[in-house]
Amino acid sequence: xxxxxxxxxxxxxxxxxxxxxxxxxxxxxxxxxxxxxxxxxxxxxxxxxxxxxxxxxxxxxxxxxxxxxxxxxxxxxxxxxxxxxxxxxxxxxxxxxxxxxxxxxxxxxxxxxxxxxxxxxxxxxxxxxxxxxxxxxxxxxxxxxxxxxxxxxxxxxxxxxxxxxxxxxxxxxxxxxxxxxxxxxxxxxxxxxxxxxxxxxxxxxxxxxxxxxxxxxxxxxxxxxxxxxxxxxxxxxxxxxxxxxxxxxxxxxxxxxxxxxxxxxxxxxxxxxxxxxxxxxxxxxxxxxxxxxxxxxxxxxxxxxxxxxxxxxxxxxxxxxxxxx
Length: 325
Known about the structure:
disordered C terminus, two-stranded antiparallel ribbon
């Protein structure tokens, strides 16, 4: 598989694997299917795996740790802290104070069963804690050898600049896809100016751009997308019309709409690494084949015409994740 470099220093596979859905949010978890998917990802050359302490909560790190046991030197392991949850799944706010950063890192290392984290993100910015304090604590973790690189997630341009002044930020992770392009205003120009890599989560629009979600009945009863603004009512119907147009363009190239959507993200630049999540080997294999898709200027113009920026109906988030400072 092709490789890309984040922040000029961290080499990863051109496509990563987001592991969140293997434990929560997208319906009932199937651990055996998840393990098989991670194993197949390794066979295909995927070496960049993304998790977080809040997924599960806590169980996703353990799952990923077990799946990668014995292959630690082959992979780049990324996890996150900041979205605080209790053992029962309750959300307890956002924390970025130094004491919490240190404690969260130690807990993640134990759950993952590793002695260091390759890329450690602040999952969401804590509005009550100066970013300088948070990143200062992350810098200490790097100096202690517990963390190799630091990152931020869903941070604003101003926060990224302040953080980068304390310690080099290797990667900024935010949502980016055909249907979510907010980062193109200020965040993307900022990270490129500073030499920070961009990790795109939900590059398939939470599965919508794959073309496999045709009605809410396609979603499990406990799938969080049932309450997502873009998957409800008139928004859902309008977004289906957009995906139908992407499907037409994909069919003309003899690829799937998901592959076209991923190829669009991959074409944004060599400093961009999408991390689509999946729990199925077949979907993983489909995603990886997007790396073989070459988009011409005509293809890109066609996508822009049928799916212009701002065309998506509905808010991007309806929960705490909208916090962006």
